[in-house]
Write a structure and sequence with these properties.
Elements: H1 4-9, E1 19-20, H2 21-28, H3 32-41, E2 48-50, E3 54-57, H4 59-74, H5 79-89, H6 95-116
């Protein structure tokens, strides 16, 4: 869903299992209160909540948030339109999301290769 030009603007997703709302906010260039609002609007966003209602996002959540950000901010969808798009998109895997994941994995593997040399 993210265009290649938009991908360059956002930082790479680190190889971590869980991310705090502050980290996701920086990774996706969206403020924390916007992320909390999107959780109410998009049923696809379900971060794990632990002690004190702290949110912990996983890698797939970060990718989904970047997709929502792209739909709303770059492609001009409304919240309802983005919600409908994502609902219909649940059945089929979004090809550009897969490409983004492959690119991310390649960059992580290249980093590992550099560390091993």
């Amino acid at each position: 869903m993210l265009e290649p030009s938009n991908n360059d603007e956002l930082p790479a997703i680190p190889a971590k299992r869980y991310f705090t709302i502050g980290e996701v906010s920086e990774l996706c260039a969206v403020k924390a209160h916007v992320l909390r609002y999107w959780e109410q609007e998009f049923r696809q966003l379900k971060p794990i909540k632990r002690r004190g209602n702290r949110r912990y996002y996983q890698r797939h959540d970060v990718i989904r948030i970047r997709q929502i950000r792209s739909l709303l901010y770059e492609q001009g969808y409304t919240i309802g339109g983005a919600r409908a798009y994502l609902s219909s998109d649940q059945v089929k895997e979004d090809a550009s999301q897969s490409r983004q994941l492959v690119r991310q994995l390649c960059s992580e593997l290249e980093e590992i290769l550099l560390l091993l040399k």
